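Ticket 4471: requesting a sanity check on a complex prediction with magnesium ion. Repro inputs:
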Amino acid sequence: KFEWAAELVNKLNVVFGIDSFRLVQEGVCNANMSGRDIVCVMPTGGGKSLTYQLPAIKSIGCTIVISPLISLIRDQILHLRESNVEAVMLMSGIAQDEMRSIMRRLDETATGKGGVKLCYVTPERLSKSDNFMFMVQKLAKNGRLARFVIDEAHCISQQGHDFRTDYKKLSMLRQQFPKIPILALSATCSQKVLEDLLQILGLKPITPGRSANLNGTVYFSSPLYRENLNYKVVEKSSVRAEVIRHMVEYILEHHPNASGIIYCLSRRDSEAVAKDIQVRSEGKIRTGVYHSGIPDPVKEKLHEDWRSGAIKVVCATIAFGLGIDKADVRFVMHHSKSVQNYYQESGRAGRDGKDADCILYYRSMDAFRYNELKQESKQSHQQIHEMLRFLQDTNECRNVLFAKHFALSAWSADELARCGHCDNCTRAPGAVEERDITVDAWRVL
Ligand code: ADP
Ligand code: MG
Ligand code: ZN
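Returned structure tokens:
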């Protein structure tokens, strides 16, 4: 535990009115407080701002945030002022006397009389204003420059889709301020963009772990955390009719008139399941089939019927994905072959932000089937192994398991916050069922 842990949570509650951290946020805050260079990749809406705003409040001096858009900066400033955090912004077109007043407040911060916690600046302003750079130097010299934050950091790479020339000039930060930590934030960051980013900013290679003598860059990444998705793993019967019955009852009880998707392991399965569900529900649940073997006109018709509500439940292979623009998918049932698939497929639920269920059906025998599946759908032993571990885990939060799966740094893996609403988070204590992942299933891997 870090010495600042309690104080961070306190500020989180009191200043921002937020109960608890999301996935990697706490790890990023701790790495910030430890003075490390950081790259943090988190999807839009994931909560990147908090990962520097909270450390900014806790740190001595001012945090300088470089952000590409004035509208983004304005939003942040409004939000911070509501929370009574002292923040200023510098951009082109700012009035002279306003500029003077900001510089005065920064000067007071540099000399320890004032307390500007966050200073937002656009990259073009940063590189054009000598006055401002002079002030940044003064802050640094007086030990009042906490860190640099580079928002939308992928803009620095020509290989990305949002390249901005002025971002290139940010390479001077490390050159002029070698001791000031840098936090780079982005929602999308391919391997190539990441390499560019490290190189241009002059950051050391990424090292896992938190040991003080490891001074490389700490890398965090997080899958999209969506709190309206309820994850649940259900062991299914080995009798097929029983599985169908369970699904039908579940749908009729919880989502009688809602739209949903059932992901199946093969084309044949998706056809059989569609038929059986419709029959078993006596036509109450209208189903359709989608897989790559379905002719295009039929696919189009299905999309149409699904959108209009004429068909409620689509039984499909993983091929059903692109072009699903339906916002009100209330449940997705899965017979997924990998954690990656389960995660990806479940992302199609609840796009309207309302609650949705993502139920994974499994039985240990399926491991053999994953193994037999042909060509593109064949999973590596490693993936099957991971899937079995995911299924078998009755303790760890499902969202934490996803986060770990998506290659988080060792730094954060042990301090991820539980989501509080997946099956493993909500199960009553002592109610852990034995998971039937048989020894045989393991041996085959
Ligand atoms: P990003 O920059 O990653 O797109 P933001 O930092 O703008 O996302 O945050 C998105 C929203 O999530 C904001 O409204 C913020 O207040 C909220 N938020 C951030 N962290 C948390 C949290 N731990 N719990 C609840 N809400 C949060
Ligand atoms: Mg943001
Ligand atoms: Zn959970």
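Notes from triage: Residues 48-49, 151 surround magnesium ion (ligand 2) (CB under 6 Å). Leaving this open until the requester confirms.
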